[in-house]
Write a structure and sequence with these properties.
heterodimer; A: MetI-like fold; 0% strand; B: MetI-like fold; disordered N terminus
Chain lengths: 267, 282
């Protein structure tokens, strides 16, 4: 028994250390964003909000933020709708190719973003397509789609079919069943996957780098600052993106977990 | 019944299927086509040549592929060693704060890999957090210069970025594991280590395989992290590939390089999945 307690502690400390390793670098960025000094060096003598003020007065930042929001917005709408359709399709499609369909839906996850970006670039080049935010969105949807499929599919496992069957027996058509029964039951999973798609798109830089024209997104702005000269403002921009992704991912995870505990509780 | 089912199933799969066909499958194919073309005077000429692949056998490229493979293997191994106890702890040792801990592990995954890479620049730089602290403590006079722009920097940042991906599938497998098996082994006198070695570890192989792939694959294709933290000393294949689509403007050569990278990744995926097949399934 004593030994068990010991190992509990050892594992606990190990896990704690890993968590510190995961979070400490993020805190470093956040702390420096409030540093009054021009250079990012400890100890911090004076705190300031001037980098945030400067950031919000920067037109390049405002434009990049707007572009990021546009791209993420379209990605959410397209990826979430396609993902819901795919997940419900895979479930009700009891054919031989069910496994194949699921594998295909999640395949883009197994390809590095770099390869995905380059493949799209060669494709656009072959078709003589002009690069713009639209071509960026096409790629971001490919990134987000597998996540939506996985999240919604997980909710559909242990889903109570009887409600849908009952509605059908009462004469409801496919779309009525979908609208009145399936979608409301899926709502937490849909909210969750929409938030996750937003985060994925909002933070994506590699695919954007290869598929954008002249328009910059926020991660692209950070990228060019890192490559071609930094200002302390970068800490503010970086912290802002960290906070946005953390908050959205947190709400999204909560929504997904709620969905799972609910479906697990269903008879 | 048949009538009602008409809209279900396969017709549902069409819209997402078409999207993936156009924006995923066809682009991959166009990369294959490009890889047998030529670049002449900054224009791409449609031919069939294998010279792009032949060029890759040059020692410069072989060396970079080796370094990429080496760094990715280290990253995967370190992530496994760090992450396994965490997954085990979450799956089998805690009940109370399990969800909170899991959430904390997952959250960093959703933050920007670019910003997380940048964080390591602040930490490892010549005037970075580590050098400053060591100097402040009087442990060193001159800053340690090998911290940044080295294999070390790339490795530690990639572990930081991708390790949580390894913990999740491992946690899922360990959590589902039948505790009776472990208890039975212990009751029969198997020690802690023997039980782990003969029962827990083999049973968790599927999780290990998937988790390792989730770290290994993006590491092999890493571009942002080695570009910012590797400098000229630690070039990975991702940087060389991206150059072909930038200043060098050699899409055909870059496509061939990407396909070789993809082939290596596929090979490792097949091996890992075979190795990690759950016990009992042939």
């Amino acid at each position: 028994m004593h030994q068990d307690k010991m190992s509990q502690w050892v594992f606990g400390i190990w896990t704690g250390t890993v968590l510190v390793f995961l979070f400490a670098p993020l805190f470093v960025v956040a702390i420096f964003s409030f540093n009054a000094s021009e250079i990012s060096v400890f100890p911090i003598k004076e705190l300031t909000l001037k980098w945030y003020v400067q950031m919000f007065n920067n037109n390049a930042f405002k434009e990049a933020l707007l572009n990021s929001l546009i791209v993420a917005g379209f990605t959410v709408v397209i990826a979430t709708s396609l993902g819901i359709i795919a997940a419900t399709g895979i479930r009700s499609y009891a054919g031989r190719f069910k496994g194949t369909a699921r594998a295909l839906g999640t395949m883009p996850m197994m390809v590095p973003r770099l390869i995905l970006g380059i493949a799209l670039l060669t494709f656009y080049n072959m078709l003589d397509t002009d690069l713009s935010l639209v071509t960026v969105i096409f790629g971001h949807v490919v990134i987000a789609l597998p996540y939506v499929v996985l999240i919604v599919s997980a909710r559909l496992v242990g889903f109570d079919d009887s409600l849908e069957e009952a509605a059908r027996d009462l004469g409801a058509g496919t779309f009525t069943v979908l609208r009145e029964i399936t979608l409301p039951l899926l709502r937490p999973a849909i909210v969750g996957s929409a938030l996750m798609s937003f985060t994925l798109s909002f933070d994506e830089v590699v695919v954007t780098f290869f598929t954008t024209g002249t328009a910059n997104t926020l991660p692209m702005m950070i990228w060019s600052m890192l490559r071609f000269g930094m200002t302390p403002e970068i800490n503010a921009v970086a912290t802002l993106t960290l906070v946005v992704s953390m908050v959205l991912a947190f709400v999204g995870e909560m929504s997904i977990r709620k969905a799972q505990t609910k479906s697990a509780a269903a008879p | 019944m048949k009538q009602r089912r008409l809209l279900d199933g396969s017709s549902f799969l069409a819209p997402p299927g078409v999207w993936l066909l156009i924006f995923f499958i066809l682009p991959m194919l166009s990369m294959v086509i490009f890889s047998v073309w030529r670049t002449v005077d900054y224009k791409f000429v449609a031919t069939f040549t294998l010279e792009n692949y032949e060029r890759l056998t040059g020692s410069l490229y072989v060396n970079v592929f080796w370094r990429t493979l080496r760094i990715s293997s280290y990253v995967t191994l370190i992530s496994l060693l760090l992450g396994y106890p965490v997954a085990y702890f979450l799956a089998r040792k805690v009940k109370q704060f399990r969800l909170t801990l899991l959430m904390l592990l997952v959250l960093p995954l959703w933050t920007s890999y670019l910003v997380r890479t940048y964080a390591w620049m602040l930490i490892l730089g010549t005037n970075g957090v580590i050098n400053q602290s060591l100097r402040g403590l009087g442990l060193i006079d001159q800053p340690i210069t090998w911290l940044l722009y080295s294999d070390f920097a790339v490795t530690i940042a990639l572990v930081h970025i991708y390790m949580p991906y390894l913990i999740l599938p491992l946690f899922a497998v360990l959590e589902k594991m039948d505790g009776n098996l472990i208890e039975a082994a212990r009751d029969l006198g198997g020690g802690r280590w023997r039980t782990f070695w003969h029962i827990t570890l083999p049973l968790s192989l599927p999780g290990i395989a998937t988790g390792c792939l989730f770290v290994f694959i993006p590491s092999m294709g890493a571009f942002v992290t080695p570009e910012l933290l590797g400098g000229t000393r630690s070039i990975m294949i991702g940087s060389i590939i991206s150059q072909q689509f930038g200043v060098s403007f050699q899409y055909p050569f870059g496509s061939a390089m990407s396909l070789v990278l993809m082939a290596i990744i596929l090979l490792f995926t097949v091996v890992a999945l075979r190795f990690g097949r759950p016990a009992g399934s042939a």
